[in-house]
UniProtKB/TrEMBL annotation:
Transmembrane segments: none annotated. InterPro entries: FUR, Fur_C, WH-like_DNA-bd_sf, WH_DNA-bd_sf. It holds the Pfam family FUR. One of its GO terms (biological process) is negative regulation of DNA-templated transcription. Zn(2+) binds at C104, C107, C144, C147. This is Zinc uptake transcriptional repressor Zur. GO terms for cellular component: cytosol. Binds 1 zinc ion per subunit. Coiled coil: none annotated. Keywords: DNA-binding, Metal-binding, Repressor, Transcription, Transcription regulation, Zinc. Belongs to the Fur family. Its cofactor is Zn(2+). One of its GO terms (molecular function) is zinc ion binding. It comes from Litorilituus lipolyticus.
Length: 151
């Protein structure tokens, strides 16, 4: 499998993060990480499994799900619940940032945005309700700029 320089840089960063956290980035986890890194948008677990099986013929659904679970817990990828897919987080690090995703229902493009104002407003509303947010992923569906301009 050829790896582009962006994927190599992301993998090196992920290895550093794992080293600092004492987490193990196994060979399979690295392979799944690199497969995700080469995708521009969201990809389903079974699509990743098919790609992984070209490298590791013995890979099973549990293999991909365990790897995705690990990568998600480390903050390297985000699961998009509404479309049952995964997307690489290109600005992961030591922070545990809130995730806000804009999902185009026409072309499937997914953009990750960060709005501190939105996060503060959501947390304030949660606090007022006596609720403590432990993890946040907000998904908004609609049409991206390119799809709006072609309709």
């Amino acid at each position: 499998m050829t790896i582009d320089s962006t994927a190599e840089k992301l993998l090196a960063q992920a290895q550093q993060v794992c080293s600092k956290k004492g987490a193990r980035l196994t060979k399979v986890r690295e392979q799944v990480f690199l497969l995700l890194a080469k995708h521009q948008g969201a990809v389903g677990a079974y699509d990743l499994l098919e790609e992984l099986q070209t490298i590791d013929a013995g890979a099973k659904p549990a293999t991909i799900y365990r790897a995705l679970d690990f990568l998600s817990k480390q903050g390297f990828v985000h699961k998009i619940e509404s479309i049952n897919a995964f997307i690489m987080c290109h600005h992961f690090g030591e922070c545990n940032h809130p995730v806000q995703l804009l999902i185009c229902d026409t072309c499937g493009q997914v953009d990750e945005i960060q709005s501190n104002n939105f996060d503060l407003a959501l947390r304030a509303m949660a606090d007022a309700s006596g609720f403590t947010i432990s993890h946040q992923i907000v998904e908004a569906h609609g049409s991206c700029r390119a799809c709006v301009s072609t309709s």
